[in-house]
Amino acid sequence: MADKFKLNGSLTKLSSYPQWAQTMVESCEPSRKRVRDHAVWDMMCDATIDNHTMRNFMLGTWPLIERFPSYMANSLMKTRYGRSPGDDLARRWLVRNIRVEQNHAEYWLDWADGAGVDRQDVLTSTPPQGTQLAADWCEEVCESDSLVAGMAATNYAIEGVTGEWSQKVYESAAYAASVSPSGRKATLRWLQMHAAYDDTHPWEALEIICALMGNAPDPGEIEHVRECIERSYVSLYYGLERCLVHSREHEPRDAACM
Ligand SMILES: [Fe+2]
C-alpha cells in the first residue's frame, strides 16, 4: 500500500508526520493555545485562585478524569487485531494505557482534598452547569464515532493540552507552597503524572492516528478528525470559562457594586 504511514524520524517532532497531519495540528493551534493559556492556570500558578473557582474546576473536571479509561475502553472495542497495522498499534497501546490510568482518579481526589475541596463533595455533588462539556463530548465521540475520531479527540487532544497546563501548574513554586506541606506530595501527584516532560502519550496517539489514516487520506476524513480535535479544545475552554462564571456568581452582591 503506497499510502501506508511509517514514522519517519523522532516521535515527538511534528515534522516526522505526513504533511496533512502537520497542517491539521497547526490549524488547531489557536484553540489549543486558548486552553493552554487559560486564566485558571495563571490563578493556580500565582496561588490566587479562590475557593469557588477551585471547587468548580475540581467538580467540573472530575467526570472527564473518572470516565477517561472508559473512553479508551470504547476505542479498544472498535479495534480488530490483524485488520491493519493501525488497528494493531491502537489495540496494543490502548490495552497497555488503560492500566496506566488506573490510579489517576484517586490522585485527582487527593489533589481536590489538598486543594480544600473535600473528596466527598467531588464524588457526590452535581458538577456546575456547563463545566463537564468535554466529558460529554469525549463520551459521545468515543461511543459513536470512528476509532480514529475518538482517539484524536481524547488521547491526542485532551491528553496533549493537559500535559501542557499540568506542567505549568506543577512547576509553580507558589502553588506548591500554597498547599499543606504534610500532604504536598499526594496533592501534587496527579499534576506530576500528567506534566508533559517525558509524556509521549499524545505523540503516540498521533502516530496511531496517522497509522490508521495513512499518508494520503480523503480530505473529508481529515476535516472530520480535525473538527473532533478542535471540539475537544473548545469544550475544555468553555468548561474552564464556566468555572470562572460560577465563581463570579458567588461573589457577594455589594462586592460586585464596589
Ligand atoms: Fe490520567
- Give the termini separation: 68 Å
How large a portion of the residues is in β-strands, by DSSP E? under 5%
Which regions are unreliable across 5 or more consecutive residues at pLDDT < 50?
A: 253-258
Name every ligand kind in the structure. fe (ii) ion
Q: What CATH architecture label applies?
A: Up-down Bundle
Question: Based on DSSP secondary structure assignment, what is the total number of beta strands?
Answer: 0
Provide structural commentary.
72% of the residues lie in helices and 0% in strands. The protein has a single domain, classed as Heme oxygenase-like (Heme Oxygenase, Chain A). Residues 253-258 have low confidence and may be disordered. Helix 3 runs parallel beside helix 9 (147-170). With 258 residues, it is mostly helical. The relative contact order is 0.19. The longest helix is centred in the last third of the chain and has 31 residues, at 219-249. The protein has helices spanning 19-27, 29-36, 39-45, 51-78, 85-100, 104-114, 119-124, 133-144, 147-170, 173-178, 184-194, 201-213, 219-249, 253-257. The structure holds fe (ii) ion. Residues 68, 101, 104, 194 line the site of fe (ii) ion.
